[in-house]
Amino acid sequence: MNVIEVKNLEKTYNDSEVQVHAVQGINLEIEEGEFTAIVGPSGCGKTTFLNMLGGLDQPSVGDIRIGDTLVHELKPSELIDFRLHNIGFVFQAYNLIPVLTAKENVEFIMQLQGRDKTERDKRAIDLLTEVGLGDRIDSRPSRLSGGQQQRVAVARALASKPKFVLADEPTANLDSKSTETLLDIMEKLNKEENITFIFSTHDMRVVNKARRVVTLEDGKIISDERK
After folding, report:
1. Which of the following CATH numbers is that of domain 2-226: 3.40.50.300, 3.30.200.20, 3.30.160.150, 3.30.360.10?
2. How far is the C-alpha of 149 from the C-alpha of 146, rounded, in Å?
3. What count of other Cβ atoms lies within 10 Å of the Cβ of residue 92?
4. For residues 111 and 26, what is the distance between their CA atoms, to the nearest angstrom?
5. pTM (two decimals)
6. Are 198 and 165 in contact (CB under 8 A)?
7. Angle at the Cα of 184 (from 41 to 145), degrees rounded to 5?
8. pLDDT tens, position by position, 198-211
9. Can you tell me the distance from the alpha carbon of 169 to that of 117, in angstroms, rounded to the nearest whole number?
C-alpha cells in the first residue's frame, strides 16, 4: 500500500529576481513501513522536498497524495489537523519547548489532539522508556545532552501515533554513539509498529541503515535503490 504518492513535484523560489528551482519534476511512491533515506549534496532539495511532504511548504507544481488526501489542496486549518493526526516530525535542531520537561514535551502534541491526561501520561512515559529516557522524564531540555534531546524529539514525533515520521537531518548534531542509539531505536519502532520513516540526510550512518535510498541532485531524482 502506498502511503505517499508524489507526481511531477516542483518548487521554485524567486531570489533577487533569479528563479531557483529547488525541486524539479519529482515522481515518487513510498510504501507503508518503508525506512527511506533521501540523500544528496547540500542544496540538492532534500529539506525542501521533505517540507512539502509534511505540508510545511507548498509546491509550485505537482501533487502530493498521502493516503486518500491531496495534502497540497488542504486549507490551512485542515492542514494543521491533518499533520496533527498523521505526521511526526524530527528536526535537526530538536525544537523542544525549553520550559517543559521531557514528559511534558512528549505530552504536548497529545494535549493538542484532545487526549485525556491519564492516556497522555502513560504514553509519554512508555515512549520515553522505549527510547531509554525513563529516568529523565522530569528533566528539561537544558539538562539533557544533544543525543537525549533528539530521543525526546523522536518520542514526541511518535506520541501522536502517526502514519509516518519525517526526519530532517536528525543525526547532524550527534556523536557516533548517540547516532547509533537513535537509529537503532527508530529502526526497532519501524519494524515493530510498521511506522514509515523518511529521512533527509547526508550522514552515511543513516544511509547504511536505510532499506531504500533516493538520491537527489539539482532538485531531481538521479537514483532510487532498494537494498
Report:
1. 3.40.50.300
2. 5
3. 18
4. 36
5. 0.89
6. yes
7. 80
8. 999 989 999 999 99
9. 32
